[in-house]
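Hi V.,

You were right to ask for the full record rather than a summary. Here it is.
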Amino acid sequence: MALDFSALPLGFQFTSPGPILVKIGPILIRWYGLLIASAVLIGVTISQYLAKRRHVNPELISDLSIWLVIGAIPAARLYYVLFQWSEYSQHPERIIAIWQGGIAIHGAIIGGVTAALIFAKLKKISFWQLADLVAPSLILGQAIGRWGNFFNSEAFGGPTSLPWKLYIPAERRPPSLVNFEYFHPTFLYESLWDLMVFALLLTLFFRALSGKPRLKVGTLFLVYWVAYSLGRFWIEGLRTDSLMLGPLRIAQIVSLTGITLGLAGLTWLYFLKRPLPDVVSPSKGDGMMGTGN
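Predicted structure:
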């Protein structure tokens, strides 16, 4: 029996109010910028709290957050621009126009991980210890940041008549789909998926504090990478604006790579029972997460 959604409330239909939150003379406050700033502040607060529970100096998280922002945001933009170079080479003045959207989370992760590795080396602290504390905040930040795509009317999926469809203005639609009005709200799919991963990571974190289960250092970040990549892989298949490498979607390639590396890391930890390679020598003890590590 076919389902008819036409009688459902129109409230399921998403329509962006536009990318600008407030305009005061020449000053513009954009939703995208506000969401990124909010994600950073909320993320730092959560990671500092988790650090306290793990008996790690929360000031380290404050210092690390500066490194992460410096490393992640430019890398996210550079990653996007490189895979859209045919467009930006014709309009180089738009390369730095990050406020118009066009950043890639995989680029942000690469830049953030690089910055965190340097930070951990300089501070002589385990990278994986820091990564475990940041992972829940990172996925929550991604859940928040995806709403920037909603306000910018970007990163949407193919046409749909589902009750949670997203209206896209004609000027934002791909030329081949200009006659369609409603599209899959892939920003919403990924935001909800990220929130579920966030809940999973917090559950594992707090259960590890009680020793059930006893998680090894690095586990949370690896679980984050695998779980996020699983969701991103199938959601990316719905999108109409994927970054491409020939006929392949870059995000799906990176997601499959992330799943493979994440599972390999978990195998290394739990089946081979060896600590992950780190920027510092393994600390004394069993390498387990808990109230004393």
